[in-house]
Amino acid sequence: MVRMGPDVPLLNEYKQEFFWKRFPQTVLGGPHFKLGYCAPPYVYVNQAVLFLTPWLLGGIGTLLCQLQLLEELHAAVLSGMLMLGAAVGVQALALYAARRNGTVERLGVPNILANEEEVEFTHCVGPETVRFIAPGKRFGLNVVLHTMLAGALCGLGTWYVLLGRLTALYGSVGVALVVFVLSWVTLCTAEYSLIVNTATETATFQAQDTYEITPLMRPLYILTFIAVDLADRFTDPVPELQLTSQVLHVVFLVLPLLWALGMLSPLDALLLWGMEQALVFGLGGSPMSSNLRLLGMFAMSVCVTVCTFFIPSTLGVVFFSMAMGFLLSLDLSQFGAHCRGGSRGAHGDSGWRRGTSPAPPRWFGWQLGCREMLLYLGLLLGAMAEAGLLHHFLSPSQPQNLARGPQAAVSYLLLILFIICWALGEIQGAYVFGGVFLNPLYPRGMANVRVFKQRGRGLHVAGAIRRVLLNLVSPFAMIAFLTLDGSVQQLHTASLSVGFTRAFRVVWQSSEEALFQMVVVVSVRLAAGDTRLPGWDSLGIGVQLLLVGLLSDRLLQFLSKLKFALAVLVTSWTEKKQRRQSAGTLLALNASLCPLLLSVVFLSAMLSAPLLPLFTLPIFLVGFPRPQRSWPGPVGTACPCPDSIYYQQMSGSLACALRSAFARGSLGSLAPGSHFLGRFQDRMVWIMILERGYGYCTVNIKGLELQETSCHTVEARRVDEVFEGAFERPEWLGLNQGLNLHWGNALTPCAALPVRVYSDARNVLSGIIDSHDNLRKLQADFLKALVWLLLRNCVQRHKTFTWGTEEGTGGKGRKSQSSHFGQSTVTQPAEAVMVESVSSLKFRRDSSSLTSFGVWSDEDDLFGPQPARRTVVLVSTEAQLGQTVLHTGPSLPGSVEMDSLFENMALSSLQPLGLGLGLPAVDKGRNPEVPPTESSGTLAHANFSCPHTELFSLPPGWRTAPLLPSRLQQLKPLFPEEWFRFTLGQLALSIQDEASEDVTRALKEDGGLKDLHAQVALSCLISLGAESAFTSPSYVYRVYCGDMPWTEGLEWLSENKELYQLALKAFRYSFKLLFDQASLGPMESLEELFSTLEEYERDWYIGLVAERGWQDSVLQEKPFLFSLGHDLTMGTYTGRVLSLQEQLVQVGRLNGEGVRGQWANLSWELLYATNDDEERYSIQAHPIMLRNLTVQAADPPLGYPIYSSVPLHLPCF
User: Fold this and answer.
1) Where would you find the membrane-spanning parts of this chain (predicted)?
2) pTM of the full predicted structure?
3) 742 phi and psi, to 5 degrees?
4) E strand or H helix that includes residue 1135
5) How far apart are CA 94 and CA 558, in angstroms?
């Protein structure tokens, strides 16, 4: 994202031409009357004839009916049969052209210079012409179905727009003629889209129409209009129905305009939206986290409502409605998983066990167990007992005044509960009164989590009280209010059955909203006093609550959409980078057409449809109604990258923190469809509420990209400012300073949540890695670390052998201490210690990744630092991971290296694959400089003086380095004998439980053991090319990355995979020692060095960011991680340290309607206008609307979050 500002085009020139070719097709239903090239006239004539064919065939029936030669029904049947024959002819031509065209395509030679859409026409009915005009159907079933539907649509449409019918409706022949002509335009667009060529609809929900559902969209809308007219024809005269028919005939004329504007939903979105609205407002349920769950819950809820209608006893209705409402409001996925696999799999559908998040905690509510079952059973039995007793002893037979009777006391109790719960919930967040004023009780200005928790204990107590009142007290009070209402005795009507079923369900499904709705009903009754409200009172308490819930939801939507519209309007002028040349004109138009703007906002709120700002400009349209999730695909799709693991790691801890915040009310109302944004360092977390029930809430957690693009940085900076204004102000503020200065922003801060997350610190190593003193110490530290790892490897190998023997003999054995010895032996995956696998190389993006340039030169930094390259050692290592043994070949000075199919492998490294390419042969069993008798012999066989020494012996293959003994003898003074004896004494105690001081002393005095370890350690030192000293930072970096230049012993070292891993780990440990000593001071004793190395092994992962082991360590929550990187642009070396600790993640609520509106525009732009330009105006940074972040958070393929969890079910008790 480079270009920013108002001069960014809405559509580039190519897309503008494409759009103006596609839009007329959408308006007319599919004809290609605007092409980008010259076409013969018969192409346009053929399309015009096909477009007008339904009108001509329908006109025949209409004419015969007007001449009274046929009855209305017979005229409609005749038109339908004629259209059926025409549709069969079109489909037969399309099938014939498809077969002929397939033959031509196989024999012809494609013109690679021709435009992709250009067609070479040869004849008016040639195969290419027919194929262009009528492409045909992909499925045979659709051929039959669409053909039959085309005939039925023409026949019924003829009946619908007969002149006699229209004249009877409007009483005027002139009006009837106008309606007749325009109505046939609507019918022709639908017929053409159905049978000839389907138009690309503006209202697109699915990215691909796999099953050809789009052609059915327009016909089914028309059939809905016809159904209302038929009901008016064949029923007794009903004024309301006749008025509806008149209005729909007028709306019928503008259907092509509504389709072109994208206001009418596609069939799949319409079905899901209809079920969701009916489930929430008619049946008392909640939007669901998946389409399958929505379908299942809708079916069960409808069955419960139908059963309620047929239960004869009012007491039975109360019991059944309340019990089923309670059960359906629970997290049914827990019960399903519990039945399938027991309590261990209680969250099998929630994503905790799918590898995308850590395992759920074992606290109350996370998994379905005995405690949860007892609580649910106790609540259900208690509620049923309360309802039964109240209904039997206190329920009135007739409706009575609220001021008298037992229901009055319950009404006042509901008022008190609502006020207390609202007050306790309001003080939980950073702002009060709709985000206008700062909350003086909320702790601020504290970065320390422990202090923050201490200062917030009072709010936690208040939250606990609110939780008890809302989850335990309020449901029983509301059940008492419903049971004592007189309308319970009149349940045997459809409206009252639906109302009471919904009321008893919503008490549990959403206790907070149900309490508010009952308080509104109580307030209306109290305000009316003794005055009867006939229209209101006759509805019954259930229908009253239904209407209050529907109206309150639409009112909140209207206010949110109005705030979003005002933000778009105002910022289009006040934000200089958003001010386009047309900004003044658009503002003037919106001001002059203010009633129209309010009507658009009102209509979108009534339909629960998104308010679509075209190109995010102040040009507002009503988007088509769609489910709250906004996207058709399953929740959890993302565009993963290496940074995804950081979000995956924190998602589990964040879910626990969200659970506490939801229970306390810190984040406000938890209506499904709510969006929250979390911020910590460079991480952005997008949280969406998918589903809400009694005691649980389903969320989706998304992680946004960590790349600091210009647009991302601008909006992230504003997010930081908004959070700083809420959480980092002084404790006591004056009234003028207690206001929310960012109230107009789409983000309203709510709370700071303590989350276990990795804190990322990066340091420039200038003065450390380039210090000659430090480099001289690196050699000694390397030998000490390698000696420690060799001895520790012996200990681990002995313990593994001992435990394996015990298990083999039938004993229980001991659990492996992976936390202490998990990374030092061959049992650990090689990629966790050494170098990354081939598949991980493509994810290298940051400065610490390896770059394959493969340059042979001395390490003198004459031309600057050299990037690490992919060497033969890496190839052989990856071969080991792939279960293929590869041997190494030398990389010769002056050899030509080039990129290849093996991803940056040098040609010299292809020798192990059988591709010698002229390289010199290598005798692997002989070193030309070392005679056979001198390279083996005493070095291969060690003589030990202590019988316990065999425990610390090394494998024979590690003793046969092809090096001159004189060369090893020359370097023997470098071996740290004192450190060897100290480490040997410390580790001997861990494997010899009965070890005495004599045994330990004998081990230390065994010269053969010391010589063996000295030989292996010094051989590794020579093989790494560090027998003199580490000479330059670039050399250190290359060895750290596992990219060693060719040395005399490198082949031997790489063949011993386990030893190579230990040597590489020892070098990385030694560099970490260098880093720590340069920062904190030198080690003062051997004990301190020993404990430091133990800490590295236990609590640290020291490697590269691109390695698989790094990712595994993050997911396993290693306390610390360290990586060495190289910034090629700055020419500096960097150290990166990740430390796992509890930090405060700041969370704020986003304007949900603003998010839905921007996502609706994104869907329109990418799926219809195909405006995928990465620098388009609608994706540019907007610090008020957070436009760039909102686009990122959309589901793929339109958005690009790098992490998205599956639906996570959080307990909210």
Assistant:
1) 49-69, 75-98, 139-162, 168-187, 250-274, 294-320, 374-394, 414-438, 586-607
2) 0.84
3) -115, 35
4) strand 1132-1150
5) 48
